[in-house]
Amino acid sequence: MGAAGSKLEKALGDQFPEGERYFGLENFGNTCYCNSVLQSLYFCVPFREQLLEYYANNKTPSDAEENLLTCLADLFLLISSQKKKTGVIPPKRFVQRLKRQNEVFRSFMHQDAHEFLNYLLNELADILEKEVCVAKSDQQTSSPSEMVINGCISKGPQKEPLVTLVHKNFQGILTNETRCLCCETVTARDETFLDLSLDIEQNSSITSCLKNFSSTETLNAEDKFFCDKCCSLQEAQKRMKIKRPPHVLVIHLKRFKYIEQLNRHKKLSYRVVFPLELKLSNTVEDADAEYSLFAVVVHVGSGPNHGHYVSLVKSHNHWLFFDDENVEMIDESMIQTFFGSTQEYSSNTDHGYILFYERLVASSTS
């Protein structure tokens, strides 16, 4: 990426951020799904900084244990510590580890970026949780009520869920409310999430998709709800609300839909507007949670089983376009070209697929 790298440096000129590095990632045969997600996570600055801090505090030469967490941290460190400002880095160690660990990603076939992101975040959280359990078993002493072990917060002896750096950044809480239409009793059940998968419609927006996500559904006929108070099946109304918004809101647009008549999945090229600034109003909290878009994973292609992935990333108020080894600067106005198509068959097949929003400090919970 010599020429492209120097072109990027020239475009940024004196505005090149101090200490920041913009490196493309080598493609090892259809690993664009991996590269696009890794770039998005790298420019999720709080996550990057916490991961590198964890790595600095826990990496020792005697550590022979290699896992996806150490490989990811090693890659992030490799990028951030480069002397050059731009260039190309082969994420070989990470990709090899991923393929060894999960046979789904072993083939050279087209993979799903959202499936990879979901697997990666859950795997990182599992690794951190296991390390905490091992550390706690080694430290069965009278410890303070809260201690930080290997990037996780452990609160006292009570059995509360561990808060890893993955949960701290990406986890939110949904509440599933069901109201019995006979006795009006409301049953609420909480569940955690690391990303929201939203159904999409033609000529819609993220805001309308979120409203549909939280819309009221009536349970009747064969879908009646068993009410504990009535001790019988009753008609009910059900809705899903965001109880606690995450620090980093990851939205997955469900662009691949199974069509029974065709007996296969089809890509929905619908135009879905995603704003640079987003307000979450369908939350249990009274105040709106405000977010700013900082990364987009884009699927390029007309179908689910083939195509390409690229990513758009905002860094220090500049938008960058990452396409495997190539990195270039783009104007903010270009973002709207990735909303989707108003017509089913269009020459533009570059559509926003995974959106990354960071919660603005003023709207974060204390």
UniProtKB/TrEMBL annotation:
GO cellular component terms, A-Z: cytosol; nucleus
SUPFAM superfamilies: Cysteine proteinases
Ranges in a coiled coil: none
PROSITE patterns on file: USP_1, USP_2, USP_3
UniProt-recorded name of the protein: ubiquitinyl hydrolase 1
Subcellular localization, as worded in the UniProt entry: Nucleus
Keyword Iron: no
Purpose: Recognizes and hydrolyzes the peptide bond at the C-terminal Gly of ubiquitin. Involved in the processing of poly-ubiquitin precursors as well as that of ubiquitinated proteins. Required for the correct development of pollen.
Reactions catalysed: Thiol-dependent hydrolysis of ester, thioester, amide, peptide and isopeptide bonds formed by the C-terminal Gly of ubiquitin (a 76-residue protein attached to proteins as an intracellular targeting signal)
GO terms classed as biological process: protein deubiquitination; proteolysis
